[in-house]
Protein backbone atom coordinates (compact mmCIF):
# COMPACT_ATOMS: atom_id res chain seq x y z
CA UNK A 1 0.00 0.00 0.00
CA UNK A 2 1.27 3.46 -0.93
CA UNK A 3 1.21 6.22 1.66
CA UNK A 4 3.09 9.44 2.32
CA UNK A 5 3.92 11.53 5.38
CA UNK A 6 3.79 15.30 4.97
CA UNK A 7 3.54 18.47 7.02
CA UNK A 8 -0.06 19.36 7.78
CA UNK A 9 -1.61 22.51 6.39
CA UNK A 10 -4.65 24.61 7.27
CA UNK A 11 -6.90 22.53 5.01
CA UNK A 12 -6.07 19.41 7.03
CA UNK A 13 -7.70 20.70 10.23
CA UNK A 14 -11.07 19.10 9.45
CA UNK A 15 -9.43 15.68 9.12
CA UNK A 16 -7.15 16.22 12.12
CA UNK A 17 -10.25 17.01 14.20
CA UNK A 18 -11.99 13.91 12.85
CA UNK A 19 -9.04 11.70 13.75
CA UNK A 20 -8.77 13.36 17.18
CA UNK A 21 -12.40 12.30 17.75
CA UNK A 22 -11.63 8.74 16.65
CA UNK A 23 -8.61 8.63 18.98
CA UNK A 24 -10.57 10.03 21.93
CA UNK A 25 -13.32 7.44 21.40
CA UNK A 26 -10.73 4.65 21.41
CA UNK A 27 -9.15 6.09 24.58
CA UNK A 28 -12.62 6.33 26.18
CA UNK A 29 -12.37 10.11 26.75
CA UNK A 30 -14.54 11.47 23.92
CA UNK A 31 -16.54 13.53 26.41
CA UNK A 32 -13.39 15.45 27.40
CA UNK A 33 -12.53 16.81 23.93
CA UNK A 34 -13.49 20.47 23.61
CA UNK A 35 -11.13 21.53 20.80
CA UNK A 36 -12.78 22.61 17.54
CA UNK A 37 -11.62 22.74 13.96
CA UNK A 38 -11.43 26.53 14.31
CA UNK A 39 -9.19 26.15 17.40
CA UNK A 40 -6.86 23.89 15.41
CA UNK A 41 -6.76 26.38 12.53
CA UNK A 42 -5.95 29.27 14.85
CA UNK A 43 -3.56 27.47 17.19
CA UNK A 44 -1.62 25.50 14.60
CA UNK A 45 -1.50 27.77 11.61
CA UNK A 46 -1.15 31.30 12.93
CA UNK A 47 2.01 33.44 12.99
CA UNK A 48 3.17 31.81 16.26
CA UNK A 49 1.71 28.28 16.26
CA UNK A 50 1.23 26.36 19.51
CA UNK A 51 1.66 23.02 17.72
CA UNK A 52 2.83 21.40 14.50
CA UNK A 53 1.32 18.37 12.80
CA UNK A 54 2.10 15.70 10.26
CA UNK A 55 -0.38 13.88 8.05
CA UNK A 56 -0.27 10.31 6.76
CA UNK A 57 -2.07 10.20 3.44
CA UNK A 58 -2.98 7.57 0.87
CA UNK A 59 -3.68 8.12 -2.84
CA UNK A 60 -7.22 9.09 -3.83
CA UNK A 61 -7.76 5.72 -5.55
CA UNK A 62 -7.18 3.95 -2.20
CA UNK A 63 -9.50 6.14 -0.11
CA UNK A 64 -11.44 4.59 2.76
CA UNK A 65 -15.05 3.47 2.44
CA UNK A 66 -15.99 6.83 4.01
CA UNK A 67 -13.95 8.72 1.39
CA UNK A 68 -10.93 9.63 3.53
CA UNK A 69 -7.39 9.88 2.17
CA UNK A 70 -5.90 11.30 5.37
CA UNK A 71 -5.50 8.20 7.51
CA UNK A 72 -3.15 9.23 10.31
CA UNK A 73 -1.60 12.20 12.04
CA UNK A 74 0.88 13.24 14.66
CA UNK A 75 0.76 16.48 16.61
CA UNK A 76 3.89 17.81 18.33
CA UNK A 77 5.44 20.91 19.87
CA UNK A 78 8.78 21.95 21.29
CA UNK A 79 9.58 22.04 25.00
CA UNK A 80 12.63 22.48 27.17
CA UNK A 81 14.12 20.17 29.76
CA UNK A 82 16.08 21.80 32.56
CA UNK A 83 18.34 18.72 32.53
CA UNK A 84 18.56 17.85 28.83
CA UNK A 85 17.79 21.07 26.94
CA UNK A 86 15.62 21.13 23.84
CA UNK A 87 12.97 18.45 23.50
CA UNK A 88 10.08 17.65 21.20
CA UNK A 89 6.79 16.51 22.73
CA UNK A 90 4.51 14.27 20.66
CA UNK A 91 0.99 15.06 21.84
CA UNK A 92 -0.80 12.59 19.56
CA UNK A 93 0.06 9.73 17.24
CA UNK A 94 -2.89 8.14 15.48
CA UNK A 95 -3.40 5.81 12.54
CA UNK A 96 -6.87 4.64 11.55
CA UNK A 97 -7.34 1.00 12.67
CA UNK A 98 -7.53 -0.48 9.18
CA UNK A 99 -4.11 1.01 8.32
CA UNK A 100 -2.21 -0.10 11.42
CA UNK A 101 0.66 -2.57 11.15
CA UNK A 102 1.91 -1.11 7.87
CA UNK A 103 4.69 1.08 9.30
CA UNK A 104 2.68 4.32 9.17
CA UNK A 105 2.77 4.97 12.93
CA UNK A 106 6.49 4.26 13.04
CA UNK A 107 7.02 6.63 10.10
CA UNK A 108 5.00 9.41 11.79
CA UNK A 109 6.96 8.99 15.02
CA UNK A 110 10.26 8.91 13.14
CA UNK A 111 9.36 12.10 11.29
CA UNK A 112 8.55 13.86 14.58
CA UNK A 113 11.96 12.76 15.90
CA UNK A 114 13.61 14.04 12.71
CA UNK A 115 11.86 17.41 13.07
CA UNK A 116 13.05 17.56 16.67
CA UNK A 117 16.63 16.67 15.77
CA UNK A 118 16.64 19.35 13.07
CA UNK A 119 15.52 21.85 15.74
CA UNK A 120 18.38 20.78 18.02
CA UNK A 121 16.33 18.56 20.33
CA UNK A 122 17.90 15.66 22.17
CA UNK A 123 14.78 13.76 23.18
CA UNK A 124 11.23 12.88 22.17
CA UNK A 125 8.64 12.83 24.97
CA UNK A 126 5.04 11.59 24.99
CA UNK A 127 2.49 9.88 27.22
CA UNK A 128 0.65 6.58 26.81
CA UNK A 129 -2.40 5.36 28.67
CA UNK A 130 -1.43 2.68 31.18
CA UNK A 131 -4.06 0.23 29.89
CA UNK A 132 -3.03 0.54 26.23
CA UNK A 133 -0.67 -2.43 26.06
CA UNK A 134 -0.57 -2.39 22.26
CA UNK A 135 0.68 1.21 22.25
CA UNK A 136 3.08 0.59 25.15
CA UNK A 137 4.59 -2.38 23.32
CA UNK A 138 4.83 -0.35 20.10
CA UNK A 139 6.72 2.49 21.80
CA UNK A 140 8.99 0.15 23.75
CA UNK A 141 9.83 -1.62 20.47
CA UNK A 142 10.90 1.76 19.05
CA UNK A 143 13.49 2.11 21.82
CA UNK A 144 11.43 4.30 24.15
CA UNK A 145 11.57 3.87 27.93
CA UNK A 146 8.76 4.08 30.45
CA UNK A 147 9.90 6.90 32.76
CA UNK A 148 7.03 6.22 35.18
CA UNK A 149 8.36 2.76 35.98
CA UNK A 150 12.06 3.40 35.26
CA UNK A 151 12.50 6.83 36.88
CA UNK A 152 9.37 7.15 39.01
CA UNK A 153 8.00 10.33 37.37
CA UNK A 154 4.30 11.06 37.19
CA UNK A 155 2.82 13.28 34.50
CA UNK A 156 0.68 15.88 36.27
CA UNK A 157 -2.05 18.24 35.07
CA UNK A 158 -3.79 21.24 36.59
CA UNK A 159 -6.94 22.15 34.63
CA UNK A 160 -10.48 23.44 34.96
CA UNK A 161 -11.27 25.23 38.23
CA UNK A 162 -7.90 24.25 39.71
CA UNK A 163 -6.14 25.94 36.79
CA UNK A 164 -8.30 29.04 37.07
CA UNK A 165 -7.68 29.23 40.81
CA UNK A 166 -3.95 28.81 40.29
CA UNK A 167 -3.92 31.57 37.67
CA UNK A 168 -5.90 33.86 40.01
CA UNK A 169 -3.28 33.63 42.78
CA UNK A 170 -1.38 36.86 43.25
CA UNK A 171 1.76 37.10 45.30
General form: globular
Write down how many β-strands occur, each being a DSSP E stretch of 2 or more residues: 5
Q: How would you sum up the major sheet? A: 5 strands, mixed
Spatial order of the strands forming the largest sheet: 1-2-3-4-5
Write down the secondary-structure element order.
Answer: EHHEEEHEHHH
Which ranges are low-confidence, i.e. pLDDT below 50, for 5 or more consecutive residues? Answer: none
Query: How big a fraction of the residues is strand?
Result: 15-25%
**Helix-strand makeup class:** alpha+beta
Mean pLDDT: 94
- First CA to last CA: what distance? 59 Å
Amount of helix: 25-40%
- Total helices: the number is 6
Radius of gyration: 17 Å
Structure description:
This protein has 171 residues and is α+β, with helices and mostly antiparallel strands. It is 35% helix and 20% strand. A five-stranded mixed sheet has the order 1-2-3-4-5, with helices on both faces. Helix 3 (104-118) links the parallel strand 4 and strand 5 (124-125). Helix 1 (13-26) packs across helix 2 (37-44). It is globular.
